[in-house]
Design goal:
electron transfer activity; transmembrane helix; Cytochrome_b-type_ET; 0% strand; 68% helix; transmembrane; Cytochrome Bc1 Complex, Chain C; membrane; 19 helices
């Protein structure tokens, strides 16, 4: 292991000298930032890169003039075509989920504040482009679910006065199985994401990752250039850590869909989420017996369309207002503090956005295409708003002389808070559904208990978060025995990866068992990613 470390060190120095890596204007990283929550953007980038690579491979075989038949050809006749197609689909899913996590993590951390406003705005635009690109890519399959999704999208656009002329420009002759125009837009939007990603990446490297609030609790939360010199250079430590994240991400993207491909007889309502295989073609008899769903990442939007027959109102509620808010929030939130409890209004709005997005997505899955009366909409969306408003208003964190929040929290206290919150939600929904003296009499004391519990637990919970944050700034010294154990695990993982790689080519290139190739390749990448992560621990951990 020691000789391997020396060899890798010499190789690293060779690249550093030849490529001038010390001169790159990239962020020098402190020790405490080598944790996944600081590198969520790298996970999104990993999923994007994987999806682009597999998309280019699929482009070699896909015939846009016969979308469904071409998809079936890739799955059944192209060597390991199903592996590439299924992982391409789930790579896009992973990118969307990780982009949401990345965005909301930065939202609640206040990472949209000065001087990162432009970085935030570009990120929001990239998320919108990602959703649009994924929708178009989903449509290229040409099955009953995809054509139904495009039909609804076409219907929404054509319902807006004056926009119907753009339908042929956007979708072409898709209803006849010709997806040439859809494919063109899919590639164009992907290229736009790539261009914005380059700009986004260099801005992120310029400002650096968001420091811990223990270090910088006010804007501008950036390290000065003189502070950078104390940190680890980008090459090779950041590169090594990033490679471990890339391989781990790619491993899961490969394993999950190829494992799902072996599951047969899934209920139809699970198909859009847990079955990467295409649905029947739109004109087949089997298509009449399936429930048509939009892509899962647009379930919320399609459900909002069930709230009103006025498309303009629908677009304002589901698209325009949330998008405008996310773009201008850096200019609305002008407070200099980063702590969530000093930005209660914007934190509350963020909590409601996440809550409503989740609620409406689940609702769209359970009742697709079912019209919802206004009274039922109020019954679903009002309680979270009340809970968030009362909860944030009740929080009055106690601080010591240094401004730190005092208190500790235990599991019994946390369990009690969850129980009281659940009772409060149930009582509130029952009150709205049946406003009687009895329900009012039950709701008022429970609401009082909820407010008192929130006031009691909030300072404690916030203090626990503050202590965790304080501990994260200084990296604990790793015991020598742990490093020795990690060295052995690195060797073991690489041996297993080599053994698996040697026998992976015996798997059939087509047919049912070809997806074993995707599972095994995913396992190899997971082992490489974990091995590199352990190598990072051995070499760079103090």
């Amino acid at each position: 292991m020691t000789s391997f470390i020396l060899m890798s060190s010499k190789l690293s120095d060779w690249f550093k000298e030849r490529l001038g890596l010390d001169d790159l204007p990239f962020f020098r990283t402190p020790d405490y930032m080598y944790k996944v929550d600081y590198w969520l953007g790298a996970l999104v980038a990993s999923a994007f890169i994987y999806t682009v690579i597999t998309g280019l491979i699929l482009l070699l075989y896909y015939n846009a003039q016969a979308g469904y038949n071409s998809t079936e050809f890739v799955i059944n006749s192209v060597p390991y075509g199903s592996v590439v197609l299924y992982s391409h689909l789930y790579g896009a899913y992973a990118m969307i989920i990780l982009a949401y996590i990345h965005m909301f993590r930065n939202y609640f951390a206040g990472a949209y504040k000065k001087p990162r406003e432009l970085l935030w705005i570009i990120g929001v635009i990239m998320l919108i482009l990602t959703l649009g690109t994924a929708f178009l890519g989903y449509s290229l399959i040409g099955d009953a679910l995809a054509t139904s999704a495009v039909d609804v999208g076409e219907g929404i656009i054509s319902s807006v006065p004056g926009l119907s002329i753009f339908i042929p420009f956007l979708f072409g002759n898709y209803d006849a199985g010709d997806y040439g125009r859809v494919l063109a837009w899919h590639i164009i939007l992907t290229a736009l994401i790539g261009l914005l990603f380059v700009f986004h990446f260099f801005l992120a490297e310029h400002y650096g990752m968001m420091p811990s609030r223990k270090v910088k609790d006010k804007v501008p939360a950036v390290y000065a250039k003189e502070e950078w010199q104390k940190f680890n250079p980008w090459w090779p430590r950041n590169f090594v850590y990033m490679m471990s994240l890339i391989f781990l991400t790619w491993g899961f993207i490969l394993i999950i869909p190829n494992a799902f491909a072996y599951l047969n007889g899934l209920p139809q309502q699970l198909n859009p989420f847990l079955n990467p295989k295409p649905a029947p073609p739109p004109n087949s008899p089997a298509a009449a017996h399936i429930t048509t769903y939009p892509p899962w990442f647009f379930l919320f939007l399609y459900k909002i369309a069930d709230f009103t027959s006025d498309v303009v109102i629908f677009l304002f509620i589901g698209v325009i207002i949330p998008l405008i808010y996310l773009i201008i929030v850096p200019f609305l939130d002008r407070t200099e503090y980063l702590h969530p409890m000093k930005r209660k209004v914007f934190v509350g709005i963020g909590i409601l956005i996440v809550t409503y997005l989740t609620q409406t997505t689940i609702w769209g899955d359970l009742t697709p295409g079912v019209e919802i009366p206004v009274s039922q909409q109020v019954l679903v969306y009002l309680p979270p708003a009340i809970i968030v408003a009362l909860g944030l208003a009740a929080i009055r964190p106690k601080t010591d002389n240094k401004g730190n929040i005092k208190g500790t929290i235990g599991p019994i206290t946390a369990l009690a808070f969850i129980l009281v919150s659940s009772l409060f939600i149930i009582a509130g929904i029952e009150l709205l559904a049946n406003p009687t003296i009895l329900t009012v009499g039950v709701f008022i004391p429970i609401a009082g208990i909820f407010i008192l519990t929130t006031k009691k637990i909030a300072p404690i919970a916030l203090n626990a978060e503050q202590r965790s944050e304080n501990a994260s700034v200084s990296e604990e010294r790793a015991p020598e025995w742990k490093k020795k154990l990690a060295e052995g695990l690195v060797a073991l993982l690489f041996i297993y990866a080599i053994i698996l790689a040697a026998q992976i080519w015996t798997i059939p290139a087509t047919g049912y068992f070809s997806n074993l190739f995707g599972i095994d390749l995913g396992l190899i990448l997971l082992m490489l990613g974990e091995g590199i992560s352990l190598y990072h621990y051995v070499i760079y951990r103090k």
